[in-house]
Amino acid sequence: MGRSKETQIRIINNTRQEIVNTHVYGVDNYDWDGNSRPDHNLQGLRISQGGGTVQRRLEVNYHARNCPFNITFSYSDGTVDEFRINQKHAIGWCDLNYQSIRKSHDTWFWRDGDKTLVVQFHNTEQQVQTQLQNDRAEERNKEGNAAINQKRYEAAMKKFDEAASLTNQSSTRSNIQHNKSRACNEFGKECLQKAWDAEADDTQDKSQEAQSKFDQARSLFQQARNLYNSTEYQKNFNLVNLKIEGNRLFNAANELEKEAFKLFDKEKSDNSAAQNKYREALVKYEQAVKKFEEGSKIDGKFGDSLKIARELVQDVNKAIDNINQAELNTNIGQVKIDDEKQEKRENDEAVNTNLHEEVDVTN
């Protein structure tokens, strides 16, 4: 090749994102000398954010006109800058002739000395404002994590909500959601333990408080699993759901049992209404037992609920048996009375017959 002229290109990345790759194309072999060409020296570069700089030598053909090439810059956040320029502008032998193909950042060009072309990237004003908001989001995210470590779970959740409202960056948002799911899960476990404690308190009736905490725990576990896919969160949700559903069945059975008790009258020969209520209660208690049995395989705290439900299944079965026995006794007594009445009628008829016969004889 003929005579060549040394040029330099200096690339400065003043954005907040790393340039993770470069790709050069649209190169004419005639324009360059040997290996000192852009598709060799500028291919596959990584340039750190916040002022990272790369400088390369590009040997241009003395007789070539402009020495243009295309170059693509790919950033860590997925944005891209792509343009076409004339390298011979570095020595002032032609215009830059900048042609933007894809633009994500502000791009500045100037000559430095008699052979160096400088390319400098900056965030746009909108990107700067977005980044400032993202920085605030990151700060709220850190505060939320600190609150989790202090077991201030409600405060942590509020911090994560604030953080999520401040950022549009998918990676930051994903991290915030993961952290909020942790807060929801930990808060849920705290509420669940308070529910168990309230239910086990034998000094006073705290059943309403316990149910409220069970419901709160379920809501928190549901939030956790919706925010982040975790087998632990799903397990916790399933566990509290078994308890809540078991309690619902147990309470429904208990109300039916009370109604049956009111309906039962041992003096009546027909207690079918009470018996039907007891049978409805039995079905509900047995369903509750199944829920508590399933839960006890995961957590031993279901043990007390399971024991009580099983005992009530036995009690209701006994009540049904008692009704059956009472009805049987009533029916037997009624048969005896009917037999006695029949025997009396037969005796009375015999006496009347004898009297009639005596009257006839006398006449």
Q: Summary?
A:
59% of the residues lie in helices and 17% in strands. It is an alpha+beta fold.
Q: How would you sum up this structure, described in words?
A:
- The chain is α+β, with helices and mostly antiparallel strands and 363 residues long.
- The chain has 3 domains: 4-123, Mutm (Fpg) Protein, Chain: A, domain 2; 124-229, Serine Threonine Protein Phosphatase 5, Tetratricopeptide repeat, CATH 1.25.40; 231-363.
- It is 59% helix and 17% strand.
- Helix 2 (125-149) runs parallel beside helix 4 (170-200).
- The mean pLDDT is 91.
- Topology pattern, helix = H, strand = E: EEHEEEEEEHHHHHHH
Question: What is the count of DSSP helices, taking H or I runs of 4+ residues?
Answer: 8
Radius of gyration: 45 Å
Mean pLDDT: 91
Strand order of the largest sheet: 3-1-8-7
Say how many strands there are.
8
Structural class: alpha+beta
Runs in which pLDDT lies below 50 for 5 or more consecutive residues are none
Instruction: Describe the global form.
Output: rod-shaped
- Describe the largest sheet: 4 strands, mixed
**Helix fraction?**
55-70%
Count of domain modules: 3
Coiled coil: 239-329
Keywords: Coiled coil
Biased composition (Basic and acidic residues): 339-348
InterPro entries: TPR-like_helical_dom_sf
